Automatic annotation (TrEMBL):
Coiled coil: none
Molecular function as annotated in GO: efflux transmembrane transporter activity; porin activity
Organism in which the protein naturally occurs: Formosa agariphila (strain DSM 15362 / KCTC 12365 / LMG 23005 / KMM 3901 / M-2Alg 35-1)
Entry keyword set: Cell outer membrane, Membrane, Signal, Transmembrane, Transmembrane beta strand, Transport
Protein name: Outer membrane transport/efflux protein
Length: 450
């Protein structure tokens, strides 16, 4: 029974490992995995962690500071006895300790403004993280579509090469029968060799594109990595019916470029407010407790060294008070810092304005790209259909000896190129539509079908 159980576990392990090695990733799985494992996203997540730490610092600045100190000394020669504050020219040991506390009462609302800035910084870092996720999602989608294109291209090339090999076999028969000259065989063999080279190059392009996507996902097993073949023949392009102005307004809500610029402007304004607090005086309250001990302190009654604990009680003391610091002249450093932050505010305003302009330009560009990609795909499809008819006609003429191998090969090459162009424009069209949908708030990994 134990052997059967171990055998079952072994078979399950093998099957599980095989399933893992032969996993085919969907677009949604690729995007979700990248969002969890991509290095750039992890770095942005660290920035959000730092923003949270900055907020913690800002909150803690409202609390008083408490510090303890202690020292132990062996003194020789003329030194001040810390217990009696008298010079003593002899060797003695001494110790002192204390606790000090201070609290900021007023500094131009510096702590309050720092707290407000830290809250804005958390929002800004989150927007940066979300923007990074959007960018990575687009990169993943582009890499995914590139793999699909390379796969489809290999299918087209293999199908065309299959036809060429069939024609080569038929041509050999016609040459043997004396219907066609022997040179026609050489022409078709050359076409076959060229197609094989194209297949090899396409397979290499496919492998490289897989490596690119795997690196985005931080997957090291390049050899077995693969994606699921999906049919995008009936995908929806309803987004092209939307007005570009409506897409722009939606993009301002969904895309984070403008939001990042807005929060950066708020941060610059808070930095300006913080720099201005340096003009104000600072008022702090402090309180301290200290005590001392020395080996030369004698008890007046016994003449013996005063006990350690007794000295701590005898020579202790407290202090408390207020400290006011008024800025009068500091080399214009505060003024220059204020002016520097004023410049940063103006720069952030321009960057926000530019972000809005860039977003409008990107949306219009994406809209036109998607429309033109659709037209290119439709034109390529019509061309492919015409080339197919021309190829079939040339094939019929070649079979009965009414045309030579060179003209037939040219018709075959033209048809092959037309098919490749259909594949290229199809996946370019898919990606352009997905980018436009992304600006409209539709997730990049969501494929809409008619």
């Amino acid at each position: 029974m134990k052997k059967i159980t171990l055998l079952g576990l072994f078979l399950f392990s093998v099957m599980f490992t095989y399933a893992q090695d032969n996993k085919q990733w969907t677009l949604e799985e690729c995007v979700n995995y990248a969002l969890e494992n991509n290095i750039s996203i992890k770095q942005s997540e660290l920035d959000t962690d730092l923003a949270g730490i900055d907020k913690s610092d800002a909150v803690m600045n409202f609390l008083p500071t408490v510090n303890a100190n202690a020292s132990y000394n062996i003194n020789t020669g003329a030194n001040v006895n810390p217990a009696t504050n008298q010079f003593e020219n002899q060797t003695f040991r001494s110790a002192s300790g204390g606790v000090n506390s201070g609290v900021n009462l007023f500094s131009g609302l510096q702590n309050w403004k720092a707290l407000q800035r830290s809250k804005i910084n958390i929002i800004a870092s989150q927007y940066q993280l979300d923007k990074m996720k959007d960018d990575i999602s687009i990169f993943v989608a582009n890499a995914f579509v590139q793999i699909l294109y390379n796969k489809e291209q290999i299918k087209v090339l293999n199908a065309q090469n299959k036809i060429t090999k069939e024609n080569l076999e038929r041509t050999n028969e016609l040459v043997d029968a004396g219907v066609l000259p022997k040179g026609d065989v050489l022409e078709i063999k050359a076409t076959d060799a060229t197609q094989i080279q194209q297949i090899i190059a396409a397979e290499n392009d496919l492998f490289i594109s897989k490596i690119g996507l795997a690196q985005l996902l931080k997957i090291e097993d390049y050899q077995t990595f693969d994606i699921a073949d999906e049919d995008y023949g009936l995908f929806s392009d309803a987004i092209l019916e939307e007005n570009p102005s409506a897409i722009i307004e939606k993009a301002k809500e969904e895309v984070y470029d403008v939001k990042v610029a807005e929060t950066n402007l708020e941060l610059a304004q808070k930095d300006l407010e913080l720099s201005r607090t340096q003009y104000y005086p600072q008022l702090t309250a402090f309180m301290g407790y200290s005590t001392r001990w020395s080996s030369t302190n004698l008890d007046f009654i016994t003449g013996q060294e005063m006990p350690f604990i007794d000295q701590l009680y005898t020579f202790d003391g407290t202090s408390m008070g207020l400290q006011l610091s008024v800025p009068i002249f500091n080399g214009l450093s505060v003024r220059n810092n204020v002016r520097r932050n004023q410049v940063n505010v103006e720069r952030s305003k321009y960057l926000l304005e530019q972000a809005n302009l860039d977003l409008e330009s990107e949306v219009y560009q994406a809209y036109n790209d998607a429309k033109n990609a659709k037209k290119s795909f439709e034109a390529a499809t019509q061309t492919s259909e015409a080339r197919k008819l021309a190829f079939e006609y040339a094939e019929e003429r070649y079979t009965v000896g009414l045309t030579n191998a060179f003209d037939f090969s040219q018709a075959s090459i033209n048809y092959e190129n037309a098919q490749s162009e259909v594949v290229r424009t199809k996946y370019e069209y898919i990606f352009k539509v997905k980018v436009l949908e992304f600006y409209f708030g539709i997730p990049i990994d969501q494929i809409n079908y008619n």
